C-alpha cells in the first residue's frame, strides 16, 4: 500500500500521520498485516476499524518508545499495540503522561508490567525521566515472610480513577547471605473499589476469607486471603507461576487496614471512618460468604 494512501486514510480517520520509517517497523509482522487490512476496510467504509488503526498509530509515536525505555522497560511494539487495542486510548495516555508527576510514573510502570513488557536487564541504568514535585510518590509498605514478601501501595483505578490499593507479591531469591526478593518478577493485583471494601471487612474480622479472581490483562491473576485465628494468610497467584504465599501477622495487618480506610475515605469525602465501618459491617452481615463479583 502506498504511503500516500495510508496517510489519506489516516487523515479521514482523524488520526496522526506516520512516516515511512515508522511503517518500516511493521514490515513482515502480523501487526503490519492487520494494520494494512484495517486500512483497507476503513477506506471501504468500515468505521469500526478506527480503534485498531489508532492503537497502531499511537504505539508507533516516538514519544511512546522513549518513555517506555526511560521507565526501564524493553520496548516491544507488538505488546504495546496489543495493549492499546485492548485498552483503547487509556493505556497510551497512561504511558504518555508518565513524566508529568511521580504518581503518573507509578501508574505507567504498573501498566507496562501488567502488559507483559520485560524490564531492561542491562547493567546500564535507563535514562531517568524527569520528576515533577507537584504530587508525592505513592505511599507503600512491605510485609516479609520467610519465602515471600508483599508490597501494598496506594493506587487508582484506570477506568474510573478511584482510590484503591495494589498488592504486589514476590518470591524469595535463593542463595546469598542476605535475604532478597524477586521484585523484578513480582505478581501485581490491583483491587477494585468493591474488592477493597471486602478486604477491609476481612481484616476487620467480619468475614473469614476473600477470593478475587480474573485480574490482569489475561484474567490470570488472583488474590486469596484467609483469616486463620492467629494471623491472616495471603496468596497472590498467576496462572503458570508459583504462588506467592505468606502469613500476615495482626500487627502487620494494621497498616493494610489504615490504608484501606484512607483510600475509601478519599473516594467518599463526605463520610467518616465510623460511616465506612458501619457500611462494611452491614455489607458483611448481608453476605456470609462474599466473593469477588
Structure description:
- This protein is an alpha+beta fold and 293 residues long.
- The protein has two domains: 3-115, no CATH class; 140-286, Transcriptional Co-activator pc4, Chain A.
- It has eleven helices and eight strands.
- It has helices spanning 3-12, 20-24, 30-43, 50-60, 62-70, 77-87, 89-96, 102-115, 193-203, 250-267, 273-286, and strands at residues 140-144, 148-156, 163-171, 187-190, 209-215, 221-227, 231-238, 244-249.
- The strands form two sheets. The protein has a four-stranded antiparallel sheet with strand order 1-2-3-4. The protein has a four-stranded antiparallel sheet with strand order 5-6-7-8.
- It starts with a helix and ends in a 7-residue tail after the last helix.
Amino acid at each position: 500500500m502506498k504511503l500516500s494512501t495510508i496517510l489519506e486514510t489516516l487523515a479521514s480517520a482523524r488520526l496522526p500521520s506516520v512516516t515511512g520509517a515508522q511503517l518500516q517497523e511493521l514490515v513482515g509482522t502480523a501487526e503490519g498485516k492487520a494494520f494494512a487490512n484495517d486500512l483497507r476496510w476503513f477506506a471501504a467504509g468500515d468505521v469500526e476499524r478506527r480503534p485498531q488503526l489508532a492503537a497502531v498509530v499511537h504505539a508507533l509515536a516516538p514519544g511512546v518508545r522513549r518513555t517506555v525505555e526511560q521507565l526501564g522497560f524493553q520496548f516491544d511494539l507488538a505488546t504495546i499495540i496489543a495493549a492499546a487495542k485492548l485498552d483503547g486510548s487509556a493505556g497510551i495516555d497512561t504511558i504518555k503522561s508518565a513524566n508529568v508527576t511521580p504518581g503518573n510514573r507509578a501508574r505507567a510502570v504498573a501498566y507496562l508490567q501488567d502488559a507483559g513488557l520485560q524490564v531492561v536487564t542491562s547493567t546500564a541504568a535507563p535514562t531517568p525521566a524527569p520528576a515533577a514535585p507537584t504530587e508525592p510518590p505513592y505511599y507503600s509498605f512491605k510485609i516479609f515472610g520467610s519465602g515471600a514478601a508483599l508490597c501494598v501501595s496506594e493506587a487508582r483505578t484506570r477506568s474510573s480513577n478511584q482510590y484503591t490499593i495494589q498488592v504486589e507479591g514476590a518470591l524469595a531469591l535463593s542463595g546469598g547471605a542476605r535475604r532478597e526478593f524477586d521484585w523484578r518478577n513480582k505478581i501485581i493485583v490491583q483491587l477494585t473499589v468493591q474488592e477493597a471494601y471486602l478486604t477491609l471487612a476481612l481484616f476487620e474480622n467480619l468475614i473469614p476469607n476473600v477470593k478475587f479472581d480474573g485480574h490482569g490483562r489475561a484474567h490470570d491473576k488472583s488474590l486469596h486471603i484467609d483469616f486463620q485465628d492467629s494471623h491472616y494468610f495471603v496468596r497472590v497467584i498467576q496462572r503458570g507461576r508459583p504462588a506467592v504465599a505468606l502469613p500476615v501477622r495482626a500487627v502487620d495487618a494494621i497498616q493494610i487496614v489504615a490504608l484501606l480506610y484512607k483510600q475509601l475515605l478519599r473516594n467518599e469525602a463526605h463520610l467518616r471512618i465510623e460511616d465506612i465501618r458501619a457500611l462494611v459491617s452491614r455489607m458483611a452481615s448481608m453476605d456470609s460468604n462474599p466473593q469477588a463479583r
